[in-house]
Amino acid sequence: MEISEIVAAYIRVLALAVLVVYGYAWVIRTISQRLMRGVAAGLLFGLGGILSMNDPIVMRPGLIYDARSILLVLSPSTQDRLAPSLLQP
């Protein structure tokens, strides 16, 4: 894999993470009920995890990276203990 392909793949990964963060900020601002806010945030992070697995970075045969690790770092900020365990393989 060439450097330009790796850079383009990382830009896609970061764009997905930014979309999840902006979506989470929107959920926090617009949903007032705590339970519904948690459900919406869980769905948002879950969808982000699924989308990241659909666009992996293949460094070489057998070495695959996806953006779930970025979402694992962001998910504890939602104060939800279950989200990191759902994103792990």
Describe this structure in words.
This protein has helices spanning 3-30, 34-54, 68-74, 83-87; strands spanning 57-60, 63-65. The protein is mainly alpha-helical and 89 residues long. The chain has a two-stranded antiparallel sheet. Helix 1 packs antiparallel against helix 2. The chain is built from 4 helices and 2 strands. The model has no long low-confidence stretch (mean pLDDT 80).
Q: What is the overall shape?
A: elongated
Helical content stands at: 55-70%
**Separation of the first and last Cα atoms:** 25 Å
- The oligomerization state is single chain
Q: What proportion strand?
A: 5-15%
For the sheet with most strands, the description reads: 2 strands, antiparallel
**What is the number of E strands?**
2
Order of helices and strands: HHEEHH
Q: Could you outline the blueprint of secondary structure elements for this entry?
A:
Layout: H1 3-30, H2 34-54, E1 57-60, E2 63-65, H3 68-74, H4 83-87
Antiparallel strand pairs: 1-2
Task: Name a few traits of the molecule.
89 residues; 69% helix; 4 helices; mainly alpha; two-stranded antiparallel sheet; 2 strands
Quickly describe the structure:
This protein is mainly alpha-helical and 89 residues long.
